[in-house]
Amino acid sequence: MNRFECMQRLAVRLKDELVILSLGASVDEWYNAAPHMRSASLFQQQLGCVTPQAFGLAVGLPHRRVVSLDTDGGMMFNLGILATLANEQPKNLLVVVWDNECYQSIGGPPTHTAGRADIAAIARGAGIEHAYTVTGLDEFDQRCAEGLNARSPYVIVAKVDRSTQRDIKHKHSDGREDKYIFVRHVEQTENIVIMGPSEHN
């Protein structure tokens, strides 16, 4: 299963959701698969922080649907977030884990999911009722439809191949600019002030 094709399927289902996603090739792929979601997407640059940050956003904005686009490597860095989701039961959080069984951005050494580790099984063991591993595009699409309407945390572990989408537009903004774009989007759509104007003394 190809990650970019999965992203395209998910993107057409999104309208006013907020998205947090991981580093690596998936950044440019999401930038192209979901151009209408660019300002609503925060491009996180630290392994282990994507789903925790999405959880915090989901708690802070319980009326908004939040989507975490995590990776197998990132999730393995912070498995404790699964127990937190199970205990806190956010009703507005969909977690997608792109599982290509390797740390692709550093050359491809295997993650634990290349062995016996099963992230969906770990999530269910932590107490998340809806946690599924999918291997086909139509199944992924179906789970996304369910997850975007779920009233409890919903985890999809998408087993994708290691191919990356080539000949696509590269995201030209850096992390600092991404943060401001995202925050201003939240401010505008929520009619709130998060970061006021800079003060000069």
**Largest sheet features:** 6 strands, parallel
Spell out the CATH superfamily. Answer: Thiamin diphosphate (ThDP)-binding fold, Pyr/PP domains
The CATH architecture can be given as: 3-Layer(aba) Sandwich
Q: Please report which band the strand proportion falls in: under 5%, 5-15%, 15-25%, 25-35%, 35-45% or over 45%.
A: 15-25%
Mean pLDDT: 93
The topology string of helices and strands comes to: HEHEHEHHEHEHEH
For the secondary structure, the number of strands is: 6
The CATH topology is given as Rossmann fold
Helix fraction, binned, reads 25-40%
Overview of this protein structure:
The chain has one domain (3-190): 3-Layer(aba) Sandwich (Rossmann fold). The longest helix is centred in the last third of the chain and has 16 residues, at 175-190. Helix 1 packs parallel to helix 2 and helix 1 runs parallel beside helix 7. The model has no long low-confidence stretch (mean pLDDT 93). The chain is α/β, with parallel strands linked by helices. It contains eight helices and six strands; from the N terminus they run αβαβαβααβαβαβα. The chain has a six-stranded parallel sheet with strand order 2-1-3-4-6-5, with helices on both faces. The chain has helices at 3-11, 25-33, 50-60, 72-77, 80-88, 119-126, 137-147, 175-190; strands spanning 18-21, 41-43, 66-71, 93-99, 130-134, 154-159. The N and C termini lie far apart (55 Å).
